[in-house]
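Record copied across here:
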Amino acid sequence: MQYRPHMSQPARTQPTDPDAGTPGTRRAAAQRLKMRRELSSAAMELFATKGYEATTVDEIAAAAGVARRTFFRHFRSKEEAIFPDHDDTLVRAEAVLDAAPPHENPLDTVCRGIKEVMRMYAASPAVSVARYRLTREVPTLREAEIASVARYERLFTRYLLGHFDEGAHREGDDDPLLAEVAASAVVTAHNHVLRRWLRAGAEGDVEAQLDHAFEIVRETFGAGIGAGRTEAGGQPPASVSREGEVLVAVARTDAPLDEVMRTIRKAIKERK
């Protein structure tokens, strides 16, 4: 497989990221996110007490102590109101991809990126559990949630595809398919762990559970995505040669340990 050399880039920041920009920008972004969360809290409470269909935008705005036009400055519809953090989390996930270390396996980068999504849910467990139960009961909200998840999947698919050399594609080359399937697998693993955690009332170490799920994804796809990845004209981060019954591993000093171990495990499995 051939990969474009990965150059570390500064993370792109936008006003939606509360931790980015000048103090004034950060203050405005924090106020915006605070307002979105207040509107979301009001919407969820009304949906739970009055029902989704019976609740109006005017009632949500009134419960949050703002005008109707303020609501529409933050959300396009009432179903969007229960997902106040997705836009900001998407920016954070993209920033992780943009600032990836030069030699990091792109699949590992994607796994780190989607952790920003899990941390968003884990930051407010009670709210996340209530929202999960609500989306199970209201099909319209469930559809809005699915649309939000699709945005992450597109982001990660574009990133993985960006590490393949388009000029090297040829008949029988499945690299683009592998990249798309791998991105879907990362998102699916994340969603599986998240749903299980929410069904359990947000009990347990969800990040440890997520790491375990990602190990399964890496074992399945790691041999293709990023395996043997090189800098232009350079050497792969790690390689293994056989000398009789002995395996000899050679790795760059800056090679990520998990990538070195995956290369060794793969060589051992092939030897069996």
